[in-house]
Amino acid sequence: MKILEALGKVGLLVWFALAGSLPQANAVDGKRPNILNILVDDMGYSDLGCYGGEIKTPNIDSLAKGGLRFSSYRTYPKCFPTRNSILSGIESDPINFQEDAMTIAELLKMKGYRTYFVGKTHGNFLPDLQAVARRGFDRSFGNEAGGSFFNHKVKQCYLDGKEWHTDKPFYKTDVQTDFALEFLDSYKESRKPFFLHLAYHAPHYPLHAKPEDIAKYRGKYLQGPNHFRKTRFAKLKELGLINPEWKLSPSSDDNNEWEKLSAEDKNKYDHLMAVYAAMIDNVDQNIGRVMTKLKEMGCFENTLITFSSDNGACPEGSPFNIWSSHTNQRFGVSYDETAEIGSAKSHWKLGEAWANMSSTPFRMYKNYCHEGGLSSPLIVHWSGKVDEPGSISHEFVSVYDFMPSWLEVAKAEYPMSFEGRKIEPLVGESFLPLLNGGVAEDKERTALFWYKSKSTVCFIKGKWKIVTLDCSKFENSKWELYDIIEDRTEQNDLSAKNSEKLSEMKKALVESFSDHEAYDSFTKQFVKKSKKGKTKKKTKK
Ligand SMILES: [Ca+2]
């Protein structure tokens, strides 16, 4: 017996010695999973192949096939509040954000995680890459919102908080991925789990893509946005992502202006949409590189991967019509309208009609609180943790739910205070129970989203949603009321028919959020604005 015990001890010693020298150090410190959060910018609900789109996204689709797709994930309709809330878990609040919240990196670092940030910063929480470097991220690479995809100086790139320069050819999505891979490489020998926030700038404007990617889509969009709204709508139903009873929302091109365009203009707007598709295609290729790296490191299986967009597709760029117009000056750089569309010298945006198509089947797009602005794909991949890989959850999840989910994965508690400061409580719920086919316990779940500059706001409670395109008079504004289970495409405004429910929802909005600093500042600003009478009338449908 003693001999066997001794042999066992020797065996263990040998095993420990070997394990310590194994290259795939992500046996980690036991079992704690890694976390990879992939965020894209201004991508619509139905652009991905696995969400009904015609854009080639085989790598993202494979995450969906091995994981879970959420059909009812919602964000703010704008970049910066979504990013604030993903990284903090609290409502996006312009006041004292940096003091009132902890970053997910600060929390996970306390639990022994290595923390990496790659990509775009935007918002008052982490306004720049220096703030990222200060707030818990071990390594960081990226730039502030905006700028060129081909020139790293237009919005200066920073590595670990310091200016970064290169003389090599630069394409932002590729270089962002290069740094993600480099950070993972440098981590390889660590025995800690990692958190990587990989926030691609694509497919946000300027529409910039590599010629070989654009070539794949050139000429594919000549049938115009209404054609693709119909094909996507049919595919979404076929995939089971949407209720087949829902009606397709009205088109931005409801008069079919596309058919009246000259062949030259059709060619131009086909080109714009091809560049947008190419940017998403390129993101997918780069996600493939990250997946390969995780597999080489032996930690693909033990990594919770999430993929989402920060808001719906972007309608900007069409001040005079529903298509698009060229931007000649941006961030002090001149662009050339005659340059090849999608090239470094051009600066085009997607425009309203294509953005509306990208957000099929929903109403509106980025900046507005109708479903096209709030709805994004959310794919969760975690090997062995999804009961039915490839399935779809129709439960309502939101941008607030990342933080509680990640804390659950890391077995970390959210504290009441941080560095002597009281911090705001989390408002979301972990989505992990839903991976096992679970359903949300709270059927009356509430959520508030807004975008101040456009005076748009919505409040959701259970199956009911109130939304306004102009909340300058707040409670006296024109509110629409929808049953978003029966009618998520917001075709049947019930505010007149069910004024009782409308009043109840307006009251619930006030009651649910009146004790939040965020809500207080929000309403006070609108009341103040309304008194001054300076709010512009919105005429969007
Ligand atoms: Ca965005």
Could you characterize the architecture of this molecule?
By secondary structure, the protein is α/β, with parallel strands linked by helices. The protein folds into 2 domains: 21-436, Alkaline Phosphatase, subunit A (3-Layer(aba) Sandwich); 446-532, Arylsulfatase, C-terminal domain (2-Layer Sandwich). It has helices at 2-21, 58-66, 79-88, 97-100, 104-110, 129-134, 172-187, 211-215, 224-239, 263-296, 352-358, 371-374, 402-410, 499-513, 517-532, and strands spanning 34-40, 68-74, 114-121, 139-144, 158-159, 162-163, 194-199, 303-309, 329-330, 333-334, 378-381, 391-398, 417-418, 421-422, 446-451, 456-461, 464-468, 480-483. A 10-stranded mixed sheet has the order 6-5-4-3-7-1-8-11-2-12, sandwiched between helices. Strands 15-16-17-18 form a 4-stranded antiparallel sheet, covered by helices on one side. Helix 7 packs parallel to helix 10 (263-296) and helix 9 runs parallel beside helix 11 (352-358). It is globular, with a radius of gyration of 24 Å. The chain starts with a helix and ends in a 9-residue tail after the last helix. Residues 41-42, 79, 204, 310-311 line the site of calcium ion.
Which helices and strands appear, and what pairs or packs with what?
Layout: H1 2-21, E1 34-40, H2 58-66, E2 68-74, H3 79-88, H4 97-100, H5 104-110, E3 114-121, H6 129-134, E4 139-144, E5 158-159, E6 162-163, H7 172-187, E7 194-199, H8 211-215, H9 224-239, H10 263-296, E8 303-309, E9 329-330, E10 333-334, H11 352-358, H12 371-374, E11 378-381, E12 391-398, H13 402-410, E13 417-418, E14 421-422, E15 446-451, E16 456-461, E17 464-468, E18 480-483, H14 499-513, H15 517-532
Parallel strand pairs: 1-7, 1-8, 2-12, 3-4, 3-7
Antiparallel strand pairs: 2-11, 4-5, 5-6, 8-11, 9-10, 13-14, 15-16, 16-17, 17-18
Helix pairs in contact: 7-10, 9-11
